Amino acid sequence: MPKKPASIKILSWNVNGIRAIQKKGFLDWFREQSVDIVCLQETKAHLHQLEDQLTRIPGYQSYWFSAERKGYSSVATYTRTKPLSVRYGFGIPHFDCEGRVLVTEFPTFMLYNIYFPNGKRDQVRLNYKMDFYDAILSHWEEQRKQGKKLLICGDYNTAHKEIDLARPKENENVSGFLKIEREWIDTLVQRGFVDAFRLFNIQPHQYTWWDMMTRARERNVGWRIDYFFATADLISRIKNAWIAPEVMGSDHCPVGLEIET
């Protein structure tokens, strides 16, 4: 039997369209990583629209959860190790119809791959985002009561603190940095969830998303809105967490985490 790895590496990336990024060398990038789990957000595709080379990467199982609406939202998880269970959504049809939550359970943690709603369009979508935030937090608390250890990665669509975006003052009234959104992350932290990246890097100018229209990436005028949050009972096992801004192809870059098994 192959030796069980002492730790596993996980990457999370909002690819802004899996078919679009496939044309930009996604599969070459994937093969070069040699990681154990890759979580993708905003794949914008249904399974039948994808080529086998995307869905059947050698050495990995893949799981796809798509929005009912075509070309919208959707998430996917690739893993070397078959999960104990896979959950598509978290049991609320109003949210699950948008294909935002994919849960893979492993012996030592439950991994949530989530594309959180964006609230910039209008007040209706902001309300939807905040309702989603509250509902998913309640769901996590129920899982914790059952003794589950949670690792939650994805595009949260909110920068938590001023250090997490280049121009905080100019964006105080923009969804993604509204007081109400940031307070939800405060609540998350108060409940015992930990921002893994900040365990290892407390420097400014660490971003994961840049506005493509203004070529903001060239000037590193960005936002850190992609995270790994973990329940406190996993923190001692997290060995590293990082951002990979050098990886191109999307308006987001990947974020990574290494955790002991």
Q: What is this structure's SSE topology?
A:
Elements: E1 7-14, H1 18-22, H2 26-33, E2 37-41, H3 52-55, E3 61-65, E4 75-79, E5 85-88, H4 93-96, E6 101-106, E7 109-115, H5 123-145, E8 150-155, H6 179-190, E9 193-195, E10 209-210, H7 216-219, E11 222-223, E12 226-231, E13 238-243, E14 255-260
Parallel strand pairs: 1-2, 7-8
Antiparallel strand pairs: 1-14, 2-4, 3-4, 5-6, 6-7, 8-12, 9-12, 10-11, 13-14
Q: What keyword list fits this structure?
A:
six-stranded mixed β-sheet; 7 helices; globular; alpha+beta; about 260 residues
What's the quick description here?
The chain is α+β, with helices and mostly antiparallel strands. Helix content is 23%, strand content 27%.
Description:
- With 261 residues, this protein is α+β, with helices and mostly antiparallel strands.
- It has one domain: Deoxyribonuclease I, Chain A (4-Layer Sandwich), CATH 3.60.10.
- 23% of the residues lie in helices and 27% in strands.
- The protein contains seven helices and 14 strands.
- The chain has a six-stranded mixed β-sheet with strand order 3-4-2-1-14-13, with no helix packed on it. Strands 5-6-7-8-12-9 form a six-stranded mixed β-sheet. The chain has a two-stranded antiparallel sheet with strand order 10-11.
- α5 runs parallel beside α6.
- The longest helix has 23 residues.
